[in-house]
Amino acid sequence: MTRDATTPARPTRRRGRWVAAPLCAAGAAAAVLAPGATAFAASPHTPSPAATPRTSPGRPWAGDHAVQQAVRQLTGAGLPGAIALIQDHGRTAMAAAGYADLATKRPMTTADHLRIGSNTKAFTATLVLQLVAEGRLGLDDTAQQFLPGIIKGGDHIAVRQLLNHTSGLYPFEQDPAFAGPYLQGNAGYYRSPRHLVALANAHAPLFKPGTKFSYSNTNYILLGLIIEKITHHSYKQELNRRIIQPLRLRDTQLPVRSLKVPEPAAHGYLLGQSSRAPRDITSAISPSTTWSAGALTSTVNDLTRFDRALVTGKLLPKAQLNEMMKAGPYKVDPTDPTKGYGLGLEKVRLCGVTMWGHTGTVLGTQTNAFTNADGTRQLVLTTNADPDTWNAGQVSAWLTTARHTLCVNNPHDGGHFLSRRDHHQKPHTTSSHNGRIHGPRTHRANGQPTTS
């Protein structure tokens, strides 16, 4: 079916993902597809801004070149803007390229704020495990014990199963009523956490708890409510008190009713086909719809600091961190048995290194943040174009970038990243036809709006 500006759209489910080989995991957050979105191709009269690097003090190293090439490759393929960061044993390199705002042609910078989607889940899981460490709940306690009657079968769903997506709970965003207000133009329509759970509760469970893996934002909305029930404080208060303030994450916020991203803000876009302009969907849907499952805004620097603090034990005792980094028994990607999901963390294998983190796809942004177990190697990649609207060439650019940026100094990497000689050649711009992102995922049917 071909959709035009008058074609109504319906919600469907999308799983977040690395959208990278060999990385593909089950992160997710909310996105609303508006009609008329098309592929971005930089005008010959308004070339994409050059990469702007920020590196740590000291002599140059290969990572400086790698991050600049990474963002150039992504924007050269037609993505509006991109930021890349790598850290390797105390050395840091960051670069940004392209546009944060296509309307004003403001260049993307490494300091831009963006929606980080399901990276929020790692924050929520950390709060839950802190409460476990304090003896205020157990991983085998049930949802019913803290939230009596809120969810069908809650007496058979353990906190652990909410954390690792084995609860079988229906994803609330797939309910037909979910997207209605937003498709009618009421972007600020507020949905309370209990309302979101009620949408899920109107549907039968997908399977018996603990028998399969199925990514569901409903799990993390319930976890946010459990945090509030135990602490007698709002989720936002606990997030600020336990994580944001201690780590001095000054650029990390939880908007609930505000549609704005703090300035400087990276706008999120939907790409598509033909000659139509990209669609700015930064404020197309209330962040209340993702709350403790995906509503955080942050910067690449803050997200990197959080991930490193988490894996190095600054936020959790060793026992709880070990639980968090213990992948469940069920496959999250049938094509790659090395991928897994722990308690709020995705496990991936890159350049022979096991890394932990999360993927976030929300309102026209894609943010992937991963760290190895001792915090000595980190990779963050983000772009302000919704992956479900990338064309095949843009997918290919992301795959190459995700692999070679981190592998730049790793002997396990056998691939080729652009040389300094290649750097001076004109970047390849791909065609604007839509392609498919390979790997297990739930496709958006007929360009329909999605929250995931």
Index terms:
disordered C terminus, alpha+beta, disordered N terminus, two-stranded antiparallel ribbon, 452 residues
Order of helices and strands: EEHEEEEHHHHHHHEEHEHHEEEEEHHE
Q: Helix/strand/pairing class, anyone?
A: alpha+beta
Helicity range of the residues? 25-40%
Give the overall silhouette.
Answer: globular
- From the N-terminal CA to the C-terminal CA, the straight-line distance is 22 Å
Please describe the biggest sheet, giving its number of strands, its sense, and whether it closes into a barrel: 9 strands, antiparallel
How large is the radius of gyration? 20 Å
**β-sheet strand percentage:** 15-25%
Mean of pLDDT: 81
- Alpha plus pi helix count: 13
**Total E-strand runs:** 15
Low-confidence runs: 1-46, 411-452
Tell me about this structure.
It is built from 13 helices and 15 strands. The protein is an alpha+beta fold. Strands 2, 3, 4, 5, 10, 11, 12, 13 and 14 form a 9-stranded antiparallel sheet that branches. The protein has a two-stranded antiparallel ribbon with strand order 1-15. A two-stranded antiparallel ribbon has the order 6-9.
Write the layout of secondary structure elements.
Blueprint: E1 30-31, E2 52-55, H1 62-76, E3 81-88, E4 91-101, E5 106-107, E6 114-115, H2 120-133, H3 143-146, H4 159-163, H5 180-183, H6 193-201, H7 217-231, H8 235-244, E7 269-270, E8 279-280, H9 291-294, E9 297-298, H10 300-311, H11 318-324, E10 340-341, E11 346-350, E12 353-362, E13 365-372, E14 377-383, H12 392-406, H13 420-423, E15 450-451
Antiparallel strand pairs: 1-15, 2-4, 3-4, 3-14, 4-5, 6-9, 7-8, 10-11, 11-12, 12-13, 13-14
Helix pairs in contact: 1-12, 2-7, 2-11, 6-7
